[in-house]
Amino acid sequence: LNFFVLVEKCIIDFSHLISNLLIRIRQTCLRINISKSFCLQNIFVMDMMELKEFNVLLCCTGSVATIKLPEMIEQIEQLQYEFNKLIIINLNVVMTKHAFHFVPDLPHKPNIRYYSDDDEWISWEKRGDPVLHIELSKWCDIIVIAPLDANTLAKVATGLCDNLLTCILRAWDFNKPILFCPAMNTKMWQHPITKSHINTLKGWGYEEIPCVSKTLMCGDTGLGAMAEVETIKVEIRKRIQRVITSL
Fold this sequence. Notes:
The chain is 51% helix and 17% strand.
């Protein structure tokens, strides 16, 4: 009987030993995981500090295609998730006076500023103050004009710079990419001067994202609609990828 009692006691003691050992193993693993987590967070913070920033200036003009601005913003923001931990994408928007007509309720985005013609004059008071169109032309790494209406196309092609957007374009450094997405009625697109204006911009270094044929907002069917937002996103992605490849 004493033998069995002794064996039972040994088994109980051994069970306690195993139980304590497992507790210690769990505690050690927990400490390792916490430590690993903090290390990864620190590495992530350091990586973020060293990441290059890529600044996108999205410009909208007085075309009905401006109604796609919220979708374009959403798609450009998605690029940040695609290139997460590789590059930081910043986005701001410039709108002509008539572009605001098509988007009365701008998407509220804390990290996005919407610039209007009025901002050009409000931001400057005296000699030495920064000039907004110069500062924005320096800030951005790429300009995307989507949509580019017939009126602004004609202005840019003939050198006019009477609003914030056209002043930015006049001060543009053509060592950086500039994309434009024409958008107008088919009749306007077919006018001989349109092709001339398009070729002028392309001759300077502008890159065209061609318009497409579809049923337009006015009900007409034909060429002149702005390229699909996904197509625009793909073209922006290509430029970002080039920057990442060069790092």
